[in-house]
Amino acid sequence: MLKYRLITAFVLIPIVIAALFLLPPIGFALVTLAVCMLSAWEWGLLAGLASRRQRIWLAILCGLLLALMMLTVPAYRPFVTVWQAQYALWAALVWWLAALLLVLCYPRSATLWRDSRLLRLAFGILTILPFFWGMLALRQHHYDINHTGAWWLLYVMVLVWGSDSGAYMFGRALGRHKLAPKVSPGKTWEGLVGGLVTSAVIAWLFGKYSPLDAAPLTLLICSVVAALASVLGDLTESMFKREAGIKDSGHLIPGHGGILDRIDSLTAAVPVFACLMLLVFNAI
């Protein structure tokens, strides 16, 4: 299993970086749209849609919703300045704070949504839609100036990847105290601290050697919050998978499970980071 995970990672990471820096804006938007549609397809299983046809329709409707929202944006307007993106990013902060409460109170919190397919579908929309707009808003930001937006998006991705890797290594080596045993028994407080330390080191290195310009304190605050949000994104998907009785959201990526299994951390970290940097602090 580890062998397949490493091979897939070595193949996917260069493809992701190439997409960030080489695709034109419309091409990147279409790729992000496809990822969100696949995520919606997988979320259908978490929401209790057992029928393949129902999940296909969910993916199609999600794609149509995102495409229509994107087509209503005038060509001359940056994404971060339009209501579609702003409302989605603010909604992300509200949703992930609510998700934190759901995770902390699990399994008691599950009694509120366990039997409601509509609520679980709404949670999926609140996860996927802000992720879509966070990806586009960050990537488009001053993209015509040294690919600044692509560098910011790569920064968030590396931050999350580093946090995940640091949490895994520190957790395996030092993990003793369970972080959320009822949601994800493998995660520990030691791993969380290790992931945050790794994220802080990455934030410092990236800020020092990449063409990014932001106030160091603001960047540190937003980076730590984004790293914490990435952990929450992982825990939230684990909670929904536990309720659905499945181990992986899908099987599209060999050795890694489904699309949601790979981007669960990013679905929280990207819109939260984008909202803080672009709307709250107006830092970039």
From TrEMBL:
One function term, GO molecular function aspect: phosphatidate cytidylyltransferase activity
Coiled coil start-end: none
Enzyme Commission no: 2.7.7.41
Membrane topology category: Multi-pass membrane protein
Any single GO BP term: CDP-diacylglycerol biosynthetic process
Catalytic activity as recorded in UniProt: a 1,2-diacyl-sn-glycero-3-phosphate + CTP + H(+) = a CDP-1,2-diacyl-sn-glycerol + diphosphate
Broadest EC class assigned to this enzyme: transferase
One GO cellular component term: plasma membrane
Transmembrane regions: 28-49, 56-75, 87-106, 118-138, 150-170, 191-209, 215-233
Places the protein is found: Cell membrane
Origin superkingdom: Bacteria
Keywords annotated in UniProt: Cell membrane, Lipid biosynthesis, Lipid metabolism, Membrane, Nucleotidyltransferase, Phospholipid biosynthesis, Phospholipid metabolism, Transferase, Transmembrane, Transmembrane helix
Pathway: Lipid metabolism; Phospholipid metabolism; CDP-diacylglycerol biosynthesis; CDP-diacylglycerol from sn-glycerol 3-phosphate: step 3/3
Membership in a protein family: Belongs to the CDS family.
Protein name: Phosphatidate cytidylyltransferase
Source organism: Candidatus Sodalis pierantonii str. SOPE
